[in-house]
Write a structure and sequence with these properties.
Blueprint lengths: L6 E4 L2 E4 L3 H7 L7 E6 L2 E6 L2 H16 L1 H7 L2
Antiparallel strand pairs: 1-2, 3-4
């Protein structure tokens, strides 16, 4: 699916309006949270997963604590 979306003024910010087909594909509705992730090819928009966010928060805390050990293991 390739769509061109127009950037519009929303109050003092700007945003894009997602068509109904995109909302259906992502299985989200008004008020839900989506995640925008930078990739090598551009960006990826996906439905937010609260369980994944919790797992990533744990990883971030462990990553800082065991940074040197993880670096050694990656060699």
């Amino acid at each position: 699916m390739v769509l061109e979306l127009k950037i519009r003024k929303v109050g003092n910010s700007v945003g894009v309006v997602l068509p109904k087909e995109v909302l259906t594909h992502l299985k989200v509705s008004e008020g839900d949270t989506v995640t925008l992730t930078e990739t090598q090819d551009g960006v990826r928009l996906s439905a937010a997963d609260p369980e994944f966010a919790k797992t990533m928060a744990v990883f971030e805390s462990l990553n800082r604590r065991y940074r040197n050990a993880l670096r050694e293991l990656a060699k």
